[in-house]
């Protein structure tokens, strides 16, 4: 055994004293706690779409009874080389507008009940896009309804609105951009039938609909850009799971 060890140490150019020092080494209590924390950090990070940075992971640990400082979590995450997934540059294809500017009715209505709607693009595979239509209510920080389709058309928006109306009390205002899907007769007729006022963002000003734009941005950088989908059905299921997590389990700070 000694002869075999000598051959190995010689091949590695490792002094025998270094080997025996390593063999006798016992981690300190502080190191053992750090290692236990690293296991918990990795589990929380992976179970939350790798979306949490050190502040949220610290919050989760404290809620579970592990009293630890945020600076320590930051240090351990750096040692593990993990972090909250960052944004990727993405140029959204333009929205087709064939309608004159309609009014923004919610600009001076901070206390009104508002549904915010938008359509965003998800990449199924390189060069192939599908369309996510969502309705978001900022007051409750919830995605109330969503539909995914292969075509960006008015029926996708109508289906999303109907889905929201089935499960939620109608709002005072429905706010969207000036895209042709939202200014279509089908959508306008549906909103009028339910006596919901339609409010519009100013053309070229996506920040007028900031809350749902922020949600879609978050969904892309924390989930869609990091996921490979096998087919359309897989994309629908995984997106549904992400939105369920966003509504129910995610620790919210703003959106």
Automatic annotation (TrEMBL):
**Residues covered by the Integrase catalytic domain:** 106-255
One biological process term from GO is: DNA integration
Cross-referenced InterPro entries: HTH-like_dom, Integrase_cat-core, RNaseH-like_sf, RNaseH_sf, Transpos_IS3, Transposase_IS3/IS150/IS904
The record's section on Gene3D superfamilies has: Ribonuclease H-like superfamily/Ribonuclease H (3.30.420.10)
Entry keywords, A to Z: Plasmid
Recorded hits in Pfam families, A to Z, give: HTH_21 (PF13276), rve (PF00665), rve_2 (PF13333)
Q: Name one GO molecular function term.
A: nucleic acid binding
Please give the function described in this protein's UniProt entry: Involved in the transposition of the insertion sequence.
Q: What is this protein called?
A: Transposase
